[in-house]
Sequence to fold (347 residues):
Amino acid sequence: MSRVAVVLFNLGGPDSPEAVEPFLRNLFADPAILRVPGFVRRFLGPFIARRRAPTAQAIYARIGGRSPILPQTQAQAAALDAALADRSPDHSCRAFIAMRYWHPFSAQTAAAVKAYGPDRVVLLPLYPQMSTTTSQSSIDDWRQAAQSVGLDAPTRIVCCYPVQSGLIEAAAALIRPQIDAVAGGKVRLLFSAHGLPEKVIRGGDPYQWQVECTARAIVERLGSAGLDWAVCYQSRVGPLKWIGPSTDDEIRRAGGDGKAVVLFPVAFVSEHSETLVELDIEYRELAHRSGVPAYHRVATVGVQPAFIDGLAELVLRTLAEPAQAVCNDGSMPACDSRFPTCLMRAS
Ligand SMILES: C=CC1=C(C)c2cc3[nH]c(cc4nc(cc5[nH]c(cc1n2)c(C)c5CCC(=O)O)C(CCC(=O)O)=C4C)c(C)c3C=C
Ligand SMILES: [Fe+2]
Ligand SMILES: [Fe+2]
Fold:
């Protein structure tokens, strides 16, 4: 029986009010996030972090001063361990967590994985849609950490899984009752994803294309003829032009059209500041002010069994593949055919 370490990547979030500014410093030190020459980033990153800290502290203060992203990810890791134990008699799998901008960092997790002594390692970003700013940044960070602790077990990467059947099934099961609950059926389903600067997408990042693939696959699974739906982008920060339409504009448009809103966070798989504050408080207030007759925020897929089973399937499929990295579950083309940044190419 082979020992497999599955490393789950997520963004991480501050665990106290004092952690907010150092968390932001880590985020803006990432060359994938702040795309300026290194000597500029070394000064500009801490400057932006200091300027953003009071706003971010106010955001986290609304949810008890800390992000729940780590306990949420730990629950997913435990559920994945159980799903893999049920499905895989040939492998003994254990899930580890590596966060990009707050504890536990890749360096600490790489040391724990080394101590576990795996025969193989599977890297699994908790981002269904691949972006250079998220999955690729985490994997680059992991490679450095693994090298520095001398972790050299054969490693496979899950690049992305925007239409993985478990993800789509879990999403549709959460969305369907919210749509059915809207009296009179005058409803618009908004798929809200974290935005990105336009220049990141122009640079060959598959994220926006994959967000749209996920939304379309969920609509198909819902099978509601004539369903009114749209994709939109939230969480803009900084002076650059970001991809649109923005979630704010879509909420105002729904209000103008007299439509109720059912909003599904299509690029987040757990709860944190962007869902609990931006979607549940700020956009709910905006919807009210904009005349939206009803606003329903759908929960993230979290530990829904269909989603966790889908992750387990991805792990087992990745272990069975000869390729260094896999995209999706084979039900759509790998993103390397269209995007130079696909992790299949990078590996
Ligand atoms: C799909 C997921 C995400 C992408 C893409 C992404 C890009 C991105 N983010 C920022 C800046 C910030 N993000 C912040 C919080 C945050 N971002 C994501 C996910 C993606 N980011 C998550 C899950 C979270 C929440 C963390 C938590 O609460 O646990 C923040 C901090 C909060 C705030 O100040 O608003 C910043 C800043 C940029 C610049 C960017 C792409 C270039
Ligand atoms: Fe973000
Ligand atoms: Fe890919």
Q: What stands out?
A: The chain has three domains: 2-12+68-162+304-346, 17-61, 165-297. Residues 130, 159-160, 327, 334-336, 342-344 surround fe (ii) ion (ligand 3) (CB under 6 Å).
